Amino acid sequence: MADEHILIVEDEEKIASLLRDYLEKSGYRVSHLDRGDTVVSFVKRNEPDLMLLDIMLPGMDGMEVCRETRKFSSVPIIMITARVEEIDRLIGLELGADDYICKPFSPREVVARVKAVLRRARPAPEERTLSAGPIVLNEDTRGVTVHGQELSLTPSEFKLLKVLMSHPNRVFPRNDLVNMVQGYEFEGYDRTIDTHIKNLRKKIAALLPEREIISSVYGEGYKFIAE
Q1: Which residue among 62, 92, 148, 174 sits deepest, i.e. has the most Cβ atoms within 10 Å of its Cβ?
Q2: CATH of range 5-121; options 3.40.50.300, 3.10.450.50, 3.40.50.2300, 3.40.640.10
Q3: Phi, psi at residue 100, to the nearest 5°?
Q4: CATH architecture of structural domain 129-224
Q5: Burial level of 222, CB count in 10 A (0-12/13-18/19+)?
Q6: Euclidean distance between CA atoms 8 and 97, whole angstroms
Q7: pTM of the model
Q8: Could you report the per-residue pLDDT of 49-62, keeping only the tens digit for each?
Q9: CB atoms < 10 A from the CB of 114, how many?
Protein backbone atom coordinates (compact mmCIF):
# COMPACT_ATOMS: atom_id res chain seq x y z
CA MET A 1 0.00 0.00 0.00
CA ALA A 2 2.89 2.35 0.80
CA ASP A 3 3.20 5.26 -1.62
CA GLU A 4 0.59 3.97 -4.05
CA HIS A 5 -0.66 6.96 -6.02
CA ILE A 6 -4.41 7.67 -6.15
CA LEU A 7 -5.83 10.28 -8.53
CA ILE A 8 -9.12 11.88 -7.45
CA VAL A 9 -11.06 13.55 -10.28
CA GLU A 10 -13.87 15.43 -8.56
CA ASP A 11 -15.10 19.01 -8.98
CA GLU A 12 -16.84 19.22 -5.59
CA GLU A 13 -14.07 20.49 -3.33
CA LYS A 14 -15.60 19.22 -0.06
CA ILE A 15 -15.93 15.67 -1.41
CA ALA A 16 -12.44 15.72 -2.90
CA SER A 17 -10.96 17.02 0.37
CA LEU A 18 -12.77 14.37 2.42
CA LEU A 19 -11.57 11.58 0.12
CA ARG A 20 -8.02 12.93 0.17
CA ASP A 21 -7.97 12.99 4.00
CA TYR A 22 -9.17 9.40 4.33
CA LEU A 23 -6.88 8.06 1.61
CA GLU A 24 -3.80 9.87 2.96
CA LYS A 25 -4.53 8.56 6.45
CA SER A 26 -4.59 5.07 4.91
CA GLY A 27 -1.09 5.60 3.53
CA TYR A 28 -1.79 6.56 -0.08
CA ARG A 29 -0.24 9.41 -2.04
CA VAL A 30 -3.08 11.51 -3.49
CA SER A 31 -3.44 13.93 -6.40
CA HIS A 32 -6.60 15.87 -7.25
CA LEU A 33 -7.99 17.27 -10.49
CA ASP A 34 -11.29 19.16 -10.75
CA ARG A 35 -11.73 19.12 -14.57
CA GLY A 36 -12.17 16.18 -16.89
CA ASP A 37 -10.20 17.68 -19.75
CA THR A 38 -6.99 17.68 -17.67
CA VAL A 39 -7.02 13.97 -16.83
CA VAL A 40 -5.58 12.30 -19.92
CA SER A 41 -2.41 14.37 -19.98
CA PHE A 42 -1.97 13.93 -16.20
CA VAL A 43 -2.31 10.14 -16.39
CA LYS A 44 0.18 9.96 -19.27
CA ARG A 45 2.73 12.01 -17.29
CA ASN A 46 2.23 10.54 -13.82
CA GLU A 47 0.84 6.99 -14.25
CA PRO A 48 -1.26 6.81 -11.05
CA ASP A 49 -2.03 3.42 -9.51
CA LEU A 50 -5.80 4.04 -9.38
CA MET A 51 -8.30 6.74 -10.40
CA LEU A 52 -11.43 7.80 -8.52
CA LEU A 53 -13.43 9.38 -11.33
CA ASP A 54 -16.60 11.45 -10.91
CA ILE A 55 -19.07 11.28 -13.81
CA MET A 56 -20.31 14.90 -13.73
CA LEU A 57 -17.25 17.05 -14.48
CA PRO A 58 -16.57 20.34 -16.27
CA GLY A 59 -14.52 20.23 -19.45
CA MET A 60 -15.13 16.54 -20.18
CA ASP A 61 -17.51 14.17 -18.40
CA GLY A 62 -16.27 11.10 -16.58
CA MET A 63 -17.61 8.66 -19.17
CA GLU A 64 -15.56 10.31 -21.91
CA VAL A 65 -12.52 10.54 -19.61
CA CYS A 66 -12.79 6.79 -18.96
CA ARG A 67 -13.15 6.05 -22.67
CA GLU A 68 -10.13 8.18 -23.60
CA THR A 69 -7.99 6.79 -20.76
CA ARG A 70 -8.69 3.21 -21.78
CA LYS A 71 -7.18 3.92 -25.22
CA PHE A 72 -3.70 3.97 -23.67
CA SER A 73 -3.87 2.85 -20.02
CA SER A 74 -5.20 -0.01 -17.90
CA VAL A 75 -5.08 2.03 -14.67
CA PRO A 76 -7.87 0.78 -12.36
CA ILE A 77 -10.83 3.19 -12.43
CA ILE A 78 -13.60 3.52 -9.84
CA MET A 79 -16.47 5.67 -11.12
CA ILE A 80 -18.22 7.99 -8.66
CA THR A 81 -21.74 9.06 -9.55
CA ALA A 82 -24.77 10.85 -8.12
CA ARG A 83 -26.92 9.13 -10.75
CA VAL A 84 -28.70 6.10 -9.39
CA GLU A 85 -29.93 4.67 -12.69
CA GLU A 86 -28.41 1.24 -13.28
CA ILE A 87 -27.77 1.96 -16.96
CA ASP A 88 -25.28 4.67 -16.01
CA ARG A 89 -23.38 2.23 -13.82
CA LEU A 90 -23.25 -0.43 -16.50
CA ILE A 91 -22.24 2.03 -19.22
CA GLY A 92 -19.34 3.05 -17.02
CA LEU A 93 -18.23 -0.54 -16.67
CA GLU A 94 -18.59 -1.18 -20.40
CA LEU A 95 -16.22 1.73 -21.01
CA GLY A 96 -13.60 -0.09 -18.99
CA ALA A 97 -14.20 1.04 -15.40
CA ASP A 98 -13.43 -1.54 -12.72
CA ASP A 99 -15.99 -0.50 -10.14
CA TYR A 100 -18.50 2.21 -9.25
CA ILE A 101 -19.79 3.86 -6.12
CA CYS A 102 -22.85 6.08 -5.70
CA LYS A 103 -23.16 9.36 -3.82
CA PRO A 104 -23.76 9.79 -0.97
CA PHE A 105 -21.13 7.35 0.22
CA SER A 106 -19.08 6.57 3.29
CA PRO A 107 -15.42 7.58 2.85
CA ARG A 108 -14.48 4.37 4.65
CA GLU A 109 -16.36 2.39 2.01
CA VAL A 110 -14.44 4.19 -0.73
CA VAL A 111 -11.13 3.35 0.96
CA ALA A 112 -12.25 -0.29 1.23
CA ARG A 113 -13.12 -0.34 -2.48
CA VAL A 114 -9.78 1.25 -3.37
CA LYS A 115 -7.95 -1.42 -1.39
CA ALA A 116 -9.98 -4.21 -3.03
CA VAL A 117 -9.44 -2.94 -6.58
CA LEU A 118 -5.70 -2.37 -6.01
CA ARG A 119 -5.38 -5.81 -4.45
CA ARG A 120 -6.77 -7.56 -7.48
CA ALA A 121 -4.78 -5.31 -9.84
CA ARG A 122 -1.47 -6.40 -8.31
CA PRO A 123 0.31 -9.36 -9.90
CA ALA A 124 0.26 -12.59 -7.95
CA PRO A 125 3.42 -13.10 -5.88
CA GLU A 126 4.10 -16.51 -7.41
CA GLU A 127 4.73 -16.87 -11.11
CA ARG A 128 2.18 -19.03 -12.84
CA THR A 129 1.11 -19.51 -16.41
CA LEU A 130 -2.27 -20.82 -17.50
CA SER A 131 -2.75 -22.12 -21.03
CA ALA A 132 -5.87 -23.17 -22.90
CA GLY A 133 -5.28 -23.77 -26.59
CA PRO A 134 -4.14 -20.46 -28.12
CA ILE A 135 -4.84 -18.50 -24.91
CA VAL A 136 -1.93 -18.00 -22.50
CA LEU A 137 -2.29 -16.11 -19.21
CA ASN A 138 0.77 -15.16 -17.15
CA GLU A 139 -0.03 -14.13 -13.58
CA ASP A 140 3.43 -12.69 -12.93
CA THR A 141 3.44 -10.29 -15.88
CA ARG A 142 -0.36 -9.89 -15.95
CA GLY A 143 -0.17 -10.58 -19.65
CA VAL A 144 -2.64 -12.50 -21.82
CA THR A 145 -2.00 -13.55 -25.40
CA VAL A 146 -4.20 -15.19 -28.02
CA HIS A 147 -2.28 -16.85 -30.87
CA GLY A 148 0.70 -14.83 -29.64
CA GLN A 149 -1.14 -11.51 -29.91
CA GLU A 150 -1.46 -9.45 -26.73
CA LEU A 151 -4.96 -9.12 -25.26
CA SER A 152 -5.48 -5.80 -23.45
CA LEU A 153 -7.62 -6.39 -20.34
CA THR A 154 -8.69 -4.29 -17.38
CA PRO A 155 -7.68 -5.63 -13.93
CA SER A 156 -11.22 -6.96 -13.37
CA GLU A 157 -11.30 -8.70 -16.75
CA PHE A 158 -7.88 -10.25 -16.10
CA LYS A 159 -8.96 -11.59 -12.69
CA LEU A 160 -12.20 -12.94 -14.15
CA LEU A 161 -10.38 -14.75 -16.96
CA LYS A 162 -7.85 -16.13 -14.47
CA VAL A 163 -10.61 -17.53 -12.23
CA LEU A 164 -12.42 -19.16 -15.15
CA MET A 165 -9.25 -20.54 -16.79
CA SER A 166 -8.05 -21.98 -13.46
CA HIS A 167 -11.12 -24.26 -13.41
CA PRO A 168 -12.02 -25.17 -17.01
CA ASN A 169 -15.56 -26.47 -17.55
CA ARG A 170 -16.55 -25.60 -13.97
CA VAL A 171 -19.73 -23.52 -13.77
CA PHE A 172 -19.34 -20.45 -11.56
CA PRO A 173 -22.51 -18.77 -10.22
CA ARG A 174 -22.50 -15.00 -10.65
CA ASN A 175 -22.35 -14.34 -6.90
CA ASP A 176 -19.25 -16.52 -6.56
CA LEU A 177 -17.56 -14.61 -9.38
CA VAL A 178 -18.46 -11.29 -7.72
CA ASN A 179 -16.78 -12.38 -4.48
CA MET A 180 -13.72 -13.79 -6.25
CA VAL A 181 -13.24 -10.94 -8.73
CA GLN A 182 -14.54 -7.85 -6.93
CA GLY A 183 -13.27 -8.95 -3.53
CA TYR A 184 -16.44 -8.21 -1.57
CA GLU A 185 -20.17 -8.87 -1.44
CA PHE A 186 -22.54 -6.16 -2.61
CA GLU A 187 -26.16 -6.42 -3.67
CA GLY A 188 -26.61 -5.93 -7.40
CA TYR A 189 -22.98 -6.53 -8.34
CA ASP A 190 -23.82 -9.78 -10.13
CA ARG A 191 -24.91 -7.52 -13.00
CA THR A 192 -21.37 -6.13 -13.27
CA ILE A 193 -20.10 -9.66 -13.85
CA ASP A 194 -22.42 -9.89 -16.87
CA THR A 195 -20.86 -6.69 -18.20
CA HIS A 196 -17.30 -7.89 -17.61
CA ILE A 197 -18.12 -11.22 -19.31
CA LYS A 198 -19.58 -9.35 -22.30
CA ASN A 199 -16.45 -7.21 -22.64
CA LEU A 200 -14.14 -10.19 -22.19
CA ARG A 201 -15.95 -12.22 -24.83
CA LYS A 202 -15.80 -9.32 -27.26
CA LYS A 203 -12.05 -8.86 -26.81
CA ILE A 204 -11.30 -12.59 -27.15
CA ALA A 205 -13.60 -12.94 -30.18
CA ALA A 206 -11.65 -10.20 -31.98
CA LEU A 207 -8.58 -12.49 -31.94
CA LEU A 208 -10.35 -15.85 -31.82
CA PRO A 209 -13.61 -15.50 -33.78
CA GLU A 210 -14.06 -19.19 -34.54
CA ARG A 211 -14.53 -20.41 -30.94
CA GLU A 212 -16.78 -19.82 -27.97
CA ILE A 213 -14.48 -19.55 -24.96
CA ILE A 214 -16.82 -18.47 -22.16
CA SER A 215 -20.20 -20.13 -22.11
CA SER A 216 -23.38 -19.03 -20.33
CA VAL A 217 -25.16 -21.77 -18.40
CA TYR A 218 -28.79 -20.70 -18.13
CA GLY A 219 -29.88 -20.07 -14.56
CA GLU A 220 -26.47 -21.03 -13.17
CA GLY A 221 -23.61 -18.83 -14.34
CA TYR A 222 -20.56 -19.04 -16.60
CA LYS A 223 -17.82 -21.50 -17.46
CA PHE A 224 -14.59 -21.53 -19.45
CA ILE A 225 -14.77 -24.12 -22.21
CA ALA A 226 -11.65 -26.29 -22.41
CA GLU A 227 -10.71 -27.89 -25.70
Answers
A1: 92
A2: 3.40.50.2300
A3: -145, 155
A4: Orthogonal Bundle (1.10)
A5: buried
A6: 14
A7: 0.63
A8: 999 999 999 999 99
A9: 25
